[in-house]
Amino acid sequence: MFPSHMSRRGLAYVLAAAGLLFVAAEATASNKPSDEELASITARGVLLAEYDTTAWQATDALKAVRPVEGRMGRYIARKTEAGWVVDFGRLNESGDKFLVAYETVQVGSSARFEVRGFDPTREDTGWNLAAAEGIETAMRDFGGASRLYNVAVLPAEHESMYVYLYPAQVKAGVYPLGADVRYHVSPDGKRILEKRPMHKNIIEYGQPGPQDTVSSGYHTHALSDLPEDTDVLLVLARKPRVPEFVGAGAYIFTIDVNGKITVADRPR
After folding, report:
1. DSSP letter string, 47-77
2. CA distance 141 to 192
3. In 10 A of CB 245, how many CB atoms?
4. How many C-beta atoms surround the C-beta of residue 137 within 10 A?
5. pTM of the shown model
6. Other C-beta atoms lying within 10 Å of the C-beta of residue 259
7. Who is most buried in 13, 24, 64, 182, counting CB within 10 A?
8. Residue 224 lies in a domain
9. For residues 11 and 189, what is the distance between their CA atoms, to the nearest angstrom?
10. Least confident piece of the model among 75-79, 87-91, 114-118, 144-148
11. CA end-to-end span of the chain, whole Å?
């Protein structure tokens, strides 16, 4: 009940302020990410984690057969109905073909890869060529880095692609997150359609000691109001696997150990 001495003008101010608060609350609710939006981040993050794991497993398999030096400059992975395939090779001098020197093929659903070599190299003008061009385009824009980076290429809508550049794990048990970028690149790999810096600074997540118990991780976002694909990658790559809480905008997001994302309002 309003005080009896309040003027009509004062009452109008109070009602206006209350209306603004209601509109602000309604706008916040309408900006809340949908389940579909969060599921899309999860799907990309899960595929990125598979790509990341596949790359090092295939590389280990290739090293075991002692490949000829100088025939490769890049690896490109793709997921097929039968499993992952990773091709190792390089662009030719004119840049219109990707020359595959070795191909590694996943055996069933296992971590084992069969390797076969091509001499002369197999010429590819399809996905491998476009992906290699996309990597070159992204890396030119990204510039140099003071540490080792991983690169991954995933298919996107309308035959375009996402190219990810993110810091590589260089020490066992230490998982880096940050200073990473996702590029949306044209189907031919030659044009950047969108550049999305995902995190600003690098966080190093260390493996807990024998006496430590870690139930979850936490970090905040400065560049966006959503979790990023590499947040999901972190959860799926880290050992032991624990959830990650991400503070972004008005919300706290929980990334579960299977990559699923849920959202809640930040405590006030």
Report:
1. HHHHHHHHHHHHHHHHHHT-PPTTS-SEEEE
2. 9
3. 15
4. 19
5. 0.86
6. 21
7. 182
8. no
9. 61
10. 144-148
11. 26
pLDDT in tens, 213-253: 778 999 999 999 999 999 999 999 999 999 999 999 999 99
Question: E strands, 24-172, where?
Answer: 74-80, 83-91, 98-106, 113-124, 149-155, 161-167
C-alpha pair distances (Å), 184 with each of 9, 70, 78, 112, 203: 54, 30, 17, 31, 24
Tokens at residue 7, please?
A: 């003027």
Is residue 149 a part of any domain in this protein? yes
| DSSP-assigned beta bridge partners for residue 182 | 164, 196
Residue 29 forms part of a structural domain: no
Tell me which residue range forms the domain holding 137.
35-200
Cα–Cα distance for residue pair 21/41, rounded to 1 Å: 31
Token pair for 172: 């066992």
Total tally of structural domains belonging to the chain: 1
Q: Residues 70-78: what's their mean pLDDT?
A: 93
Residue 185 tokens read as 């690149």
Does residue 162 fall inside a structural domain? yes
Closest listed residue to residue 120, CA positions, set 101, 92, 93, 97: 101
